[in-house]
Design a protein that fits this description.
- There is one protein chain.
- This protein is α+β, with helices and mostly antiparallel strands.
- It has 3 domains: 74 residues, Orthogonal Bundle (Muramoyl-pentapeptide Carboxypeptidase, domain 1), CATH 1.10.101; 160 residues, L,D-transpeptidase catalytic domain-like; 58 residues, no CATH class.
- It has 10 helices and 17 strands.
- The protein has an 8-stranded mixed beta barrel. Strands 7-10-8-9 form a 4-stranded antiparallel β-sheet.
- The radius of gyration is 24 Å and the shape is globular.
């Protein structure tokens, strides 16, 4: 915050960079804003002061490397291409970043202190998870990408939960809203939808029910049967579910759609949190290096029957909202 306040004082004028084409600029492309871009990246700390740019009319490889560092700090695709999204982030004046940092500090100030030393923290707008043992000074935080709820329709709620158990090879008990709003219309279009997606109908007592067509749709709508997806390659929860009982039915889980972690914007779920490296998170929360080695976790995650493992002690899961934080190197990171 102090750094950006000083930057705002020094650079009260923050002129707009010249526009770029729809496809953006790659290294070696002529660009009229090279001199302004050089100064801006240097002021922001993404370009070393001693860096020399030979031609101030060309978007050079050195500038593209600095842009990649800037993109990494601003939740953008780290491709070095000077596109419209990167240009927009570069145009945000330091005074606005000061306000962003100040508001974030105020939000974080209101988070209650945690009595447990082992914490899983998820910053929703940054699509990022950290798992850390505050009682172990030598234990570096685990950090990974996550997928969260769709911001416009099914946002992930902000709260503090208690993770109490894991489920390897879990069933996915389809939420009521998804049953009625998505599965029933899909069944109307394709009567084989359940079979094609390894899904089945069960009664309110958990007994398998065999029915198809209009009867199945009617019973799902009425709530007298429910839909669940069997463990396996098509299961949307993937190989493991991290359960933290709450009235909103929000939990962490792996996913069968691992390619989605490569996206820059990752608000794609119905509210639950999909984790990038579930085996690593499982080892952290199980906290028993002998009983739960990397190999044993891998074995538990292989296809097989569901298996519930109760944690020795609950772990706090903090879902918070911060659009400006610092990384482990002390650099400002914006969402």
């Amino acid at each position: 915050l102090a750094q950006y306040r000083e930057l705002a004082r020094m650079a009260s004028q923050w002129p707009a960079l010249p526009p770029v084409g729809r496809t953006g600029l790659v290294a070696g492309t002529p660009y009229a804003g090279t001199a302004v871009l050089y100064d801006r990246l240097r002021l922001l700390g993404d370009l070393a002061d001693e860096t020399v740019v030979a031609d101030n009319q060309v978007y050079s490889a050195e500038l593209a490397a600095a842009v990649r560092r800037f993109q990494a700090r601003h939740g953008l695709a780290e491709d070095g291409v000077l596109g419209s999204d990167t240009l927009a982030a570069l145009s945000v004046p330091p005074a606005q970043r000061v306000e962003q940092l100040t508001l974030t500090l105020e939000r974080l100030r209101w988070l209650p202190a945690q009595s447990q030393s082992r914490i899983v923290a998820i910053n929703v707008p940054a699509y990022r998870l950290w798992a850390v043992d505050l009682g172990d000074a030598s234990n570096l935080a685990i950090e990974m990408r996550v997928i969260v709820g769709k911001a416009a329709s099914t946002p992930t709620p902000l709260f503090i939960g208690q993770m109490r158990h894991l489920e390897f090879n879990p069933y996915w008990n389809v939420p009521r809203s998804i049953e009625v709003g998505e599965i029933v219309p899909k069944l109307a279009r394709n009567p084989n939808y359940l079979q094609e997606n390894d899904m089945e109908l069960v009664s309110t007592r958990g007994q398998l029910v065999s029915m198809t067509g209009a009867e199945a749709r009617t019973r799902i709508r009425s709530g007298t049967v429910r839909v669940r997806q069997r463990p396996g390659a098509k299961n949307v929860l993937g190989e493991v579910k991290f359960a933290m009982p709450n009235p909103m039915n929000i939990y962490l889980h792996s996913t069968s759609s691992k390619e989605l972690f490569e996206r820059t914007r990752r608000d794609l779920s119905h509210g639950c949190i999909r984790v990038e490296r579930p085996a690593e998170l499982a080892r952290f929360v199980l906290d028993d290096q002998e009983k739960w080695s990397a190999d044993k976790v891998a074995v538990a995650m292989r296809p097989g029957p569901p298996r519930k493992v109760v944690l020795a002690a609950p772990i706090s899961v903090v879902l918070f909202y911060a659009t400006a934080i610092t990384d482990r190197n002390g650099r400002a990171v914006f969402a």
